[in-house]
Structures are given as structure tokens and as C-alpha cells.
Amino acid sequence: MQKIPVGISSCLLGENVRFDGGHKQHSYVQQTLGEYFEFRPFCPEVEIGLGIPRKPIRLVRKQGSDQIHCVSSVDESKDYTDPLVNIADQQAQWQQHLCGYILKRASPSCGMERVKVYSDKGMPFNDGAGIYAARMMSNFPSLPVEEEGRLGDSRLRENFIQRVYVMWRWKKLVESGITVHKLVDFHARHKLIIMSHDQQDYRELGKLVADIRKDNLEQMAPEYLRSLMAALKKIATVGNHVNVLQHIQGYLKQNLDSEDKQELVQCIESYRNGIVPLIVPITLLNHHFRRNPNEYIERSWYMSPYPSELSLTNQI
């Protein structure tokens, strides 16, 4: 399978580009995700000429101003804000082809959120974002972005990887020549995934798709993508997954005997109660659909949203 292009902070792949000349190699990212993602490493601090090693930089908020600057930690007259913003803009040509981005946590250049911002009194507040990261995310607001530290949380990890695969499928759709029929089919195959994230967003996206015609496709397709990725950024809940599983179960009501139906009901309840992970009812459903094929369910990405080797639905 073709690997998916994903941007990443260079230090996370073991490149010695940090201010101290070291790296922050992340084994899960490199060894596990690296089997499926084609990483495009980038270090904005090196690219603007700060050198290796170098004096550390930090974010500061000037008194009486909401504007955040990135400066040298030893000489605040050395301001790197504009160079970091400019270097982010200069990468747009290759970044537009990405399906995701993994950033270095807490970095004044690459941190996604909760980066320390120092006041004039020297007190830090964890309310900033790295200058390069903020600009990159502003340039590509629908791009799935996550920090390596947050990937340790199974829900955040699954959410990010799922969004990367959805974005990859979207880019393949666009490359093939998007049509109203193809977009409607794309939405249909992702409907159950959307339902697991937010029921209201699912309804709103359905209305949006219903309004897409050949004469407004060019304007509506980007709006659909923005709305879709915003919906998928919300963490799927157990309750929403249960609703989806029960919805899928309805496609089998004419095919299962009472014993199989009861087993399936109990399996879904066990998932609801945290006794088994999501992969268990999905595996049981897939078993029944192999014996009782249904084209809609077979084509739905909910049943197999990414390679099973990633084992993302194995966590309770």
C-alpha cells in the first residue's frame, strides 16, 4: 500500500537538530506509524539559520499587548517571530500535499498548543502555540495535526490517525477528478464514522451534501471538507459508537436467529460497559456480514477505517 505523506518535526525522527544538538526520537512514531506514513521532516529553527547547537528560544507576551513574539532566551532583542512565520509560508508548496502533521510538544516554534508564554515578569503561562506551527495550521486549517506527546493517549491517537486516512482518501478523490456522484459516494462511505463523532454534525453534513450540484461543486467541495474535518476532530464517544453499532446491527435483523441476535446485543453492551474494546463487536459484526453480505456495510469505512495492524480499536 502506498504510504501516506505526513509532515513531522525533524527531531522526532532522531535528527540532531535541537538547540542542544540532540534529538527527541519517538519510537512509536518512527517504527509503527512509519510503516504506513511517509514522513516529511522539517525543522523551522534550523531553516531560519539558528544553527546547531544554539541558544534556546521562547515565547514572550509584551506588557499591554496580546501579541506573542518568539525571541532568544538570553537576548530578547533577537526576535525570530517574522522569520518563523515566513518560513511556514514558504513551505506551502509541499505542505499542501500532506495528509497530516506531527509536531514537537512544547516547542516555541513547533508546539501545537499549551506552549509556555512568558510575561514581562518572567511568569510563564501555558496558553501559546509555536509560531511556525500556528502559521502552518492557519494556512491549512483542515489538515490533521497532533503532537507526539498526545499520541500516548489512545483516543487522541486513534482520532488523529483516522483523520489522516480520511484526508488521504479525500486527496485521492480530488486527484481522480471530483464529481457530485463521487463526493456523494465518499460521504456515504464515511457516514457511520461521522455518526460516531457527532450526531448533529452528521445531520448537518448530510444537508450540505444534499445541496451540492454540478454548478456549485467547486465552491461546495472545500466547504464540505472543512465541515467534515471539524466534525472528525471531535473525539468519538462510547455512546455514539454504541448507536452506530446498533444501527449496523439493524442490517442483520432478517438474517440472524434469536441466539445470534442476543449474542450481538450482549457484545455491544459489554463494549458500552467497558468490559471489551470496540474491536470485539466490530469483529463479531464483520463475521456475520461475511455470511450475510451487505453492499452498504461492506463499503463503509467504519468497519475498517485503517490497517488492522495499528490495533487502534483494541484499547478499552
List keywords for this structure.
316 residues, alpha/beta, four-stranded parallel sheet, four-stranded mixed sheet, 8 strands, 47% helix, elongated
Describe it.
- The protein is an alpha/beta fold and 316 residues long.
- It has helices at residues 27-32, 44-47, 81-90, 92-95, 131-139, 154-175, 180-197, 199-210, 217-233, 238-249, 258-272, 279-291, 295-299, and strands spanning 4-9, 37-42, 57-61, 68-72, 101-103, 115-118, 124-128, 145-147.
- A 4-stranded parallel sheet has the order 2-1-5-8, covered by helices on one side.
- Helix 6 runs antiparallel to helix 9 (217-233), helix 7 (180-197) runs parallel beside helix 9 (217-233) and helix 11 packs antiparallel against helix 12.
- The longest helix has 22 residues, at 154-175.
- The radius of gyration is 22 Å and the shape is elongated.
Structural class: alpha/beta
- Oligomeric state of the chains? single chain
N/C terminus separation: 28 Å
Based on Cα principal axes, name the global outline: elongated
Q: Helix and strand string, N-terminal first?
A: EHEHEEHHEEEHEHHHHHHHH
When the domains are counted, the total is 2
Number of helices: 13
Largest sheet, described in full? Answer: 4 strands, parallel
Radius of gyration equals: 22 Å
Kindly report the average pLDDT value. 94
* Strand order, sheet with most strands: 2-1-5-8
Please indicate the percent range of residues in DSSP E strands (runs of 2 or more): 5-15%
Uncertain runs: none
Q: Name the helicity range.
A: 40-55%
Q: How many runs of DSSP E, i.e. beta strands?
A: 8
